[in-house]
Amino acid sequence: MSHTVTIQPSGHKIVVEQGESVLEAGLREGFALPYGCRNGACGSCAGKLLAGRVHYPDGKPAAITDDEIAQGKALLCQARPDSDLEVEIREVGAAKDIQVKVLPCRVAAMDKLSHDVMRLKLKLPATERLQFLAGQYIDIILRDGRRRGFSLATAPHEDDFLELHIRHVPGGRFTDHVFTDMKEKTILRFEGPLGSFFLREESDRPIILMGGGTGFAPLKGMTEHAIAAGLERPIEIYWGVRAKRDLYLHDLAETWAREHENIRYVPVLSEPAEEDEWSGRTGFVHQAVSEDHPDLSGHEVYMSGPPAMIEAARTAFASCGLPDEFLFYDSFEYASDTLHALDGN
Ligand SMILES: Cc1cc2nc3c(=O)[nH]c(=O)nc-3n(C[C@H](O)[C@H](O)[C@H](O)COP(=O)(O)OP(=O)(O)OC[C@H]3O[C@@H](n4cnc5c(N)ncnc54)[C@H](O)[C@@H]3O)c2cc1C
Ligand code: FES
């Protein structure tokens, strides 16, 4: 039997299915509830029970005392509702609300998505989870302390594995390793989540997501989050690459557009190959956006990818009237290769 949980002070309602914890249901429905370990050990998911009853199927979690339970505290990662509930908990609204961690992870899967893009699926230790906002990135910390930034391509509710889309930079210290001798089960270290490039959910402006190459990665996380959260705002995804073989998850993007009325997908090729027989859009991706939207004053734009694309688009979109405060971007700058201490400072 399912139960409805009303979150205060937001008033958001979550339907918790039989056997699910309140946190699992909340994340599944796209709400940014705070959490850390997801196994009852850290206390990050604590909320105050204002009405209703819960139980803990595996016994009282380590991070809560009998006194705290008596005072109405509940650990939402473990709590199963016995009735409809009203719970007070502060939802995560900004990157500053999330703890940045340095964690080890194991490369659980490597799939070559195209001639120069590898998907890595990273698995965290059993007792750890990474909370993040859709679109944020992590820094992989190399053995010598150098760092390489990669965007999270998954939505926050799918945190069993962290997914990265890595483009091979020939001669690049880290990406050469990924494409030549890295094997599944390799252990990496990273710091994250980082950055302020994440989907703003409080706005009701139509959204444009624009990516160049692997700039598609954070946009995938944002789109999957928007779908899970039931966002009904129009979302237009412009993906710019050189040729058709570079649209490494083209079918997925087409499926989003086919299955969701509010999603439109526009692939744009800058140098289509002859064998592509391409009848779609060509040219630079930011030009396709400005051609379709000569007036961007009412939109919100998120863009990620090569620095040259970001620079050109900033100027172009300002001329289309996009206010600065509604433009969000991650420019895939190359690492300056300053050494950082391994302790994450
Ligand atoms: C916030 C952020 C998010 C990012 N997200 C992603 C992502 O999701 N997917 C992804 O593939 N990349 C992403 N990048 C870019 C990525 O971090 C770099 O491409 C990567 O660090 C290259 O590492 P490397 O050790 O192989 O190359 P390096 O050893 O750092 O570089 C070797 C040589 O290649 C040049 N170079 C480095 N990167 C590039 C590049 N991208 N294009 C052209 N020349 C380059 C350098 O100037 C240098 O001369 C992101 C960058 C940032 C800052
Ligand atoms: S997330 Fe750590 S106790 Fe619930």
Structural notes for this entry:
This protein has 345 residues and is an alpha/beta fold. The chain folds into 3 domains: 3-88, Beta-grasp domain (Ubiquitin-like (UB roll)), CATH 3.10.20.30; 96-194, Elongation Factor Tu (Ef-tu), domain 3; 207-331, Rossmann fold (3-Layer(aba) Sandwich). The chain is built from 7 helices and 19 strands. The protein has helices at residues 22-28, 66-70, 173-180, 216-228, 250-259, 285-292, 307-319; strands at residues 3-8, 13-16, 46-51, 54-55, 73-75, 80-81, 85-88, 101-114, 117-123, 137-141, 147-151, 162-167, 187-194, 207-212, 235-241, 263-269, 281-282, 300-305, 327-331. The strands form 4 sheets. Strands 11-10-13-8-9-12 form a 6-stranded antiparallel sheet. Strands 17-16-15-14-18-19 form a 6-stranded parallel sheet, sandwiched between helices. Strand 8 (101-114) and strand 9 (117-123) form a beta hairpin. Helix 6 runs parallel beside helix 7 (307-319). The longest helix is centred in the middle third of the chain and has 13 residues, at 216-228. It is globular, with a radius of gyration of 21 Å. It starts with a strand and ends in a 14-residue tail after the last strand. The site of flavin-adenine dinucleotide has 23 residues, from strand 11, strand 12 and helix 3.
